[in-house]
UniProtKB/TrEMBL annotation:
InterPro entries the record matches: YjiT
Name of the featured protein: STY4851/ECs_5259 family protein
NCBIfam families with a match to the protein in the record: YjiT_fam (NF038336)
Species this chain originates from: Shewanella phaeophyticola
Length: 518
């Protein structure tokens, strides 16, 4: 099996070496990686002793590359003979000249190639989504980059110590631990210690971000690409892998395996080739939007058409993301941008100019007036065949809008300052809260009055386009002092149990004119 460089065992070992770096970073044991890859070899290689032996070989090859920096060595075996003459004796199997130095070199070069990738892998984000079939919810697995960059000077912080969180929109999903900033001039690097993360999503259509805070104040936020799954907006496909439903694509895409599709209720479809059947057979089988596709399908949702192919020769999905300045509060729609967002292709340098057409609520963007872009919209990207590659419900406010809250002197009094040069309509939908609008040099001020104890939050409605639906923004009610609310936003009871504390939140507010300590 080892007599030449093209033997099947050598090919399998190369495949193992190719994936060992990612397996390590994901926390998967190398032995598991070996067991999966040797299944194509004769039964003798699938025995536990053989798997352990190949695991030792893999670990030894990787360690040799790391210890002796073999990445740039054209003949690593000869180099090792010079710097560490006993390296062959320490190898799990005999390595003499009868096997051939070229074969050993081939393995070491593959290990070296993957070792040189490890630094690049450390700088990348890896994302996987899985469907929880009973709840039709999403679990996301992440391998975060080992560091994030931010333009920040240490003199603006109390110390170089930060706390990192994984957030979905404005909601924290997981604490990522403590980090320390390494700053050089205006450029700072924030190291991530807990890189492997697994979270149950609350709203998978919201993107995930890594957030850095100090003393409860947000210092920086890094949005994470490919972390949105639009279960209720467009077709989403999964493949069955190791007993789990793994995300395979959404909108218009193709995949080499059969696809388990979830379609919005309003969707209709036409079978172009192959066949479809309901899935799973025991759960949700009465719901037509869960189908198993073996072939090609054309799905129609309102004005959007999606072409999906399974059992295709290749797996293709354009990973598109929107980016732009966003309102830093919870909003409805979930993503509200300041100005029209831009799109880009993730992890690819392909120039998409003129290849894709932007649509705003079913109309080509190029044919709309500026004021028609504002408000609640459905943003879509289509190819030249009219097939939708991306679709998302978003809010759009004029560029430069800034919202600031300020506590009043009296309980229940407060102000919301909105900086903008555009005329917009404002309302508040929270019970017991009223306001008086006054113009300012920078925009408007909403002077708040509340009957009774002020609520934890209020809902501000902004209508930037008189013909459209208002955008809702959830703001903390501006006040002074310390307040504790339960998970439902109600004042916490004076006599309570441990259960009452679950999901509770402490709100701390300074006075109108000066800072405060608590």
């Amino acid at each position: 099996m080892l007599s030449n460089n093209d033997n099947k065992f050598g090919q399998v070992l190369k495949r193992i070496l190719k994936n060992v770096a990612v397996a390590k970073l994901l926390g998967e044991p190398i032995e598991k990686l070996v067991a999966i890859n040797v299944q194509s070899l004769p039964q003798a290689f699938n025995e536990q002793e053989s798997i352990q032996l190949i695991t030792l070989m893999t670990e030894r090859l990787v360690n040799l590359v790391d210890i002796f920096a073999l990445e740039n060595k054209s003949n690593p075996a000869d180099y090792l003979d010079n710097v560490s003459p006993k390296w062959r004796e320490d190898f799990p199997i005999p390595l003499d000249n009868s096997i051939g130095t070229n074969i050993v070199n081939s393995w070491l070069q593959e290990a070296s190639k993957e070792g040189s990738k490890r630094t690049r892998i450390g700088q990348k984000l890896f994302v996987e989504h899985y469907l929880n079939i009973n709840e039709l919810s999403i679990t996301t697995k992440l391998l975060l980059p080992n560091e994030f960059a931010v333009n920040l000077q240490l003199k603006h912080l109390k110390s170089n110590r930060l706390e990192l969180f994984l957030a979905e929109s404005s909601k924290d999903l997981q604490h990522l631990g403590v980090s320390y900033i390494n700053a050089t001039g205006e450029q700072a690097l924030v190291k991530v210690r807990n890189r492997t993360v697994k979270v149950l999503r609350r709203a998978s259509d919201n993107p995930l971000s890594v957030v850095a805070r100090q003393g409860g104040n947000e210092i920086a936020r890094w949005p994470l690409d490919n972390t949105s799954v639009f279960l209720n907006e467009m077709p989403v496909g999964f493949i069955k892998q190791d007993g789990e439903y793994k995300y395979a694509g959404q909108a218009t895409f193709s995949h080499k395996d059969e696809l388990y599709l979830i379609l919005p209720r309003s969707a209709t479809y036409e079978i172009i080739d192959g066949d479809v059947s309901p899935w799973p057979q025991n759960i949700h089988s009465e719901k037509p939007y869960c189908i198993l596709l073996k072939g090609e399908l054309l799905v129609t949702i309102d004005d959007d058409k999606y072409r999906i192919k399974s059992i295709d020769s290749g797996s293709i999905e354009l990973e598109l993301n929107l980016f732009g300045d966003m309102v830093p509060f919870d909003t409805e729609p979930n993503a509200t941008y300041l100005g029209l967002p831009k799109y880009r292709l993730v992890n690819n340098d392909i120039n998409l100019n003129n290849a894709l057409i932007e649509y705003i609520s079913g109309q080509p963007k190029a044919g709309l007036m500026l004021h028609e872009l504002y408000g609640r919209q459905t943003y879509a990207l289509k190819n030249q065949d009219g097939e939708t590659l991306y679709r998302k419900r978003i809010g759009i406010l004029p560029p430069g809008v800034k919202i600031i809250t300020k506590a009043g002197v009296e309980l229940g009094k407060g102000e919301i300052y909105i900086e903008t040069n555009k005329k917009m309509v404002y309302s508040i939908s929270t019970e017991s809260v009223s306001f008086v609008k006054k113009d300012t040099n920078e925009g408007v001020c909403l002077q708040l009055t509340c009957t009774g104890l002020p609520p934890a939050e209020l809902s501000l409605q902004i209508t930037p386009n008189l013909m459209g639906t208002p955008i809702s923004i959830k703001l903390p009610y501006p006040r002074q002092g310390a307040f504790v609310f339960d998970c439902n936003g109600k004042p916490l009871k004076k006599h309570l149990s441990i259960d009452d504390l679950l999901g509770s939140r402490l709100h701390l507010f300074a006075s109108a004119e000066c800072s405060a300590e608590f």
